[in-house]
Amino acid sequence: MMGEYRPLGPSWERPLTSDELRGRLVAGVALPQPLVPARKLGNGSELYDFSGAMGCGCGRPSVCVLGAFDGVHVGHRALVRAAVDEARERGLVSIAVTFSPDPAALLAGPIVNDTLLAVEDRARMLSRLGLDAVLVVPFTRELAATSHETFLREWLAASVSPVSIHVGADFRMGAGGAGTVAALRVVAGPLGIDVHGHELVSEHGRAVSATLVRRLIRDGQVEDAARLLCRDHMVRGVVEHGRGEGASFGFPTANVRIDASVCLPAEGVYAALVCDGSHAWPAAVNVGAPRSFGGAAGEPFLEASLVGFSGDLYGRRLSVSFVAWLREPRTFASVEELEATVLGNVAWVRKYLGEGEVL
Ligand SMILES: Cc1cc2nc3c(=O)[nH]c(=O)nc-3n(C[C@H](O)[C@H](O)[C@H](O)COP(=O)(O)O)c2cc1C
Ligand SMILES: Nc1ncnc2c1ncn2[C@@H]1O[C@H](COP(=O)(O)OP(=O)(O)OP(=O)(O)O)[C@@H](O)[C@H]1O
């Protein structure tokens, strides 16, 4: 039960149970799950050795999965499962080799609000899928210009000794994206490394990708995104002082400065779970500066009205997990209308996510 995310479906015909709420927080790594400290390797990459299988070096033969794995969506999970299964059967070490920043982000230029999971949360999420280790390779322009032959022979083979590599059928790496599955096989074969190119996991005929999940989130379709992520999309940030008027409206709010580069959902109002690391509350969340008070569309802004919380959260680091879309942002003609509408949103949250503290 714990750690399981089960979508309720579009109907919301019943409230989530407290087990389901806790399960969603665990599945989304909103709770602080211990993560082994990363070990810096000579080549600048960082190794998270979850099972201790890597010992003092990376010399043991391994089964590898390769890619950015932003979001750790259902397609990434299938690939990791195949690698973990093979490693278990053959008594080998399983390892995800991932890159930071996401190669697509670096190559596309400065993209704001795009990351689904910060690298530590990505490692946390991958650790839960049974992998022995995650290697985070710093993705630089120099690495981008490195050929797939060089990366495979001199980099990968030297650092994680792969005997088998699992990637998606669309995978490409190395300079100019020349390292397709077929091209990797040409280089890997003589080195005694198998390359498995897996058919992509699809939904409704569309391959699942981090790009698709980002698009859904930016459109406010957080429940569809959650189905593909197997968890609620979560962002983290620190509580700052706002204008302080919310308290007098009958709904105090925490203004959260979201970490830069995180993929923020479409402007609008959501039902969410807010967690400070040890406690969590249901919340009605507004994304986007309040338009009734001169806020302009597009300003990065998030405020949460927590159900069952009273106290001070200033300076605290919170996670916000988006559970359901409630409505579009509005410019209200009067404070009374604003207050009634927001209190109506809070009532929805109270009904479906509970009356107060989840943890
Ligand atoms: C769940 C929720 C929904 C909100 N929806 C809107 C909205 O649609 N339009 C708007 O102008 N402000 C909206 N607000 C923002 C309020 O106007 C804001 O909380 C109020 O101005 C108090 O801000 P302060 O805490 O910075 O003083 C919403 C706030 C919350 C918590
Ligand atoms: N739907 C999928 N099914 C199976 N494997 C996948 C799927 N999507 C990606 N992969 C594989 O997972 C690894 C990590 O891929 P990557 O991080 O590039 O994912 P992505 O979701 O396609 O990202 P983006 O949309 O940003 O390009 C790669 O080997 C990739 O081929």
Topology:
Layout: H1 18-27, E1 39-40, E2 46-49, E3 62-66, H2 74-90, E4 93-100, H3 103-108, H4 119-127, E5 133-138, H5 141-144, H6 148-160, E6 162-168, H7 181-188, E7 194-198, E8 202-203, E9 206-207, H8 210-218, H9 222-229, E10 234-240, H10 246-249, E11 254-258, E12 268-275, E13 280-287, E14 302-306, E15 317-327, H11 335-353
Parallel strand pairs: 3-4, 3-6, 4-5, 6-7
Antiparallel strand pairs: 1-2, 2-5, 8-9, 10-11, 10-15, 11-14, 12-13, 12-15, 13-14
Helix pairs in contact: 6-7, 8-9
Bound molecules: flavin mononucleotide and adenosine-5'-triphosphate.
The site of flavin mononucleotide (FMN) has 24 residues, from strand 13, strand 14 and helix 11.
How is this structure best described in words?
There is one protein chain. The protein is built from 11 helices and 15 strands. With 359 residues, the chain is α+β, with helices and mostly antiparallel strands. It folds into 2 domains: 165 residues, HUPs (Rossmann fold, 3-Layer(aba) Sandwich); 122 residues, Elongation Factor Tu (Ef-tu), domain 3, CATH 2.40.30. A 7-stranded mixed β-sheet has the order 1-2-5-4-3-6-7, sandwiched between helices. A hairpin with a 2-residue loop joins strand 8 and strand 9. The model has no long low-confidence stretch (mean pLDDT 89). The protein binds flavin mononucleotide and adenosine-5'-triphosphate. The site of adenosine-5'-triphosphate has 22 residues, from helix 2, strand 6 and helix 8.
